[in-house]
Write a structure and sequence with these properties.
By secondary structure, this protein is an alpha/beta fold. The protein folds into two domains: 4-73 and 155-249, Rossmann fold; 87-154, no CATH class. The chain contains ten helices and nine strands. The protein is globular. The structure holds adenosine-5'-diphosphate and magnesium ion. Magnesium ion (MG) binds next to helix 1.
């Protein structure tokens, strides 16, 4: 059984074809990066895997099931702009929300629960547990939502640009946490613009431009030709040189 599977998945929004006949799959315990320019369809892939939108044609499966039947096993964190950050909730409140399914809506705020503590420890936010989420840095907010997903007991983590706008240390911490989850057998699908971060850490890269340009291990997929087909134009040649420098330096 595959952890995630897209088979000729096409997604239209009215007259826009967001994704055309996308096919790729991964076994569990892998990190998969979705890379492509804005509007390429990265968020759309994550939303199909999360069961939030259905493919217009083709098939999408998560843990061998229709995505609408995997609730509780799949954690989805939306792109930053889609989250309302001003809720007067603390870090602990948000993480404890991961328990709603198990404990019921009226008990989730009774959050002195070892699952919450374990999740907070894993993302290194124990010391900030009482802090309001609106008062956190971007990286800490991402880790809070990751902890909520961990608390929920997710097997598959769908993360939409979680490292966008983070400074280098915050990015490193987040990627380390994701590696830990992967090593526990979880599957992580992450949209990102940070190609260099995917080189050494991710198992698979999917290059997307409203279709699948390439899918496979990063060192095979991140060729200048594939990148040019994904991003278009010649700007990418320069980028690729930078990429190699960054990869050595990392
Ligand atoms: N709800 C929607 N209604 C209409 N068009 C949409 C909607 N969501 C996304 N799109 C379009 O689908 C395409 C893919 O978008 P998206 O999946 O958000 O790409 P990415 O995350 O790679 O930037 C874009 O052309 C976008 O404008
Ligand atoms: Mg997006």
């Amino acid at each position: 059984m595959y952890a995630i599977e897209l088979e000729s998945a096409t997604l239209r929004y009215d007259d826009v074809v967001a994704l055309r006949e996308v096919t790729f799959r991964s076994e569990a315990g892998k990190m998969i990066a979705l890379i492509g320019p804005n509007g390429a369809g990265k968020t759309s892939i994550l939303k199909m895997l999360a069961g939030l939108v259905k493919p217009t044609s083709g098939r999408v499966k998560v843990l061998g099931k229709d995505p609408s039947k995997t609730r509780g096993l799949v954690a989805y964190t939306p792109q930053r702009e889609e989250v309302y950050w001003e809720y007067p909730l603390t870090v602990r409140d948000v993480v404890a929300m991961g328990n709603i399914r198990r404990r019921g809506v009226f008990r989730w705020l009774d959050s002195h629960d070892s699952r919450v503590d374990t999740a907070l420890r894993l993302v290194m936010l124990e010391d900030l547990a009482s802090r309001k989420i609106s008062e956190l840095s971007g990286g800490q907010q991402q880790r809070t939502f990751l902890a909520r997903a961990i608390c929920q007991g997710g097997e598959v983590y769908l993360l939409d640009e979680p490292i966008a706008g983070l400074d280098a240390p915050s990015e490193t911490i987040l990627l380390e946490i994701l590696k830990t989850l992967r090593d526990q057998g979880k599957t992580i699908v992450m949209a990102t613009h940070d190609i260099s971060a995917t080189l050494e850490i991710f198992d698979y890269v999917a290059l997307i431009r409203n279709r699948l340009v390439a899918f496979g291990p990063p060192k095979e997929v991140l060729t200048s030709e594939n990148l040019a087909n994904t991003y278009g134009g010649s700007t990418i040649a320069l980028h690729l040189d930078d990429l190699e420098k960054v990869a050595k330096w990392r």
